[in-house]
């Protein structure tokens, strides 16, 4: 997933890595959700959604409230 010049990748172990898009490899963040996942991150209105076998995580500011 590419958004805001960042690449978001999630592996089956539930680890999401954020990499800066560009000619040099640079890891910006790594987050472990401590759960199994096969889904890709989804991005909508500035929020990132990540689904594991137990939860759906929404990361970002609330909108529309």
- Structure class: mainly beta
**Biggest sheet overview:** 4 strands, antiparallel
Low-confidence stretches: none
Q: What multimeric state do the chains show?
A: single chain
Question: What's the alpha carbon Rg, rounded to whole Å?
Answer: 12 Å
Number of domains: 1
Overall mean confidence score, pLDDT: 90
Which key terms come to mind for this protein?
single chain, 65 residues, mainly beta, Thrombin, subunit H, three-stranded antiparallel beta sheet, 7 strands
Characterization of this structure:
The chain has 65 residues and is mostly beta strands. The chain has one domain (2-59): Thrombin, subunit H, CATH 2.40.10. Helices cover 0% and strands 48% of the residues. The chain has no helices and 7 strands. It has strands at 2-3, 6-10, 15-20, 27-32, 42-44, 47-51, 56-59. The strands form 2 sheets. Strands 1-2-3-4 form a 4-stranded antiparallel beta sheet, with no helix packed on it. A hairpin with a 2-residue loop joins strand 1 (2-3) and strand 2 (6-10). The mean pLDDT is 90.
Outline of this structure?
By secondary structure, the protein is mainly beta.
Layout of helices and strands:
Elements: E1 2-3, E2 6-10, E3 15-20, E4 27-32, E5 42-44, E6 47-51, E7 56-59
Antiparallel strand pairs: 1-2, 2-3, 3-4, 5-6, 6-7
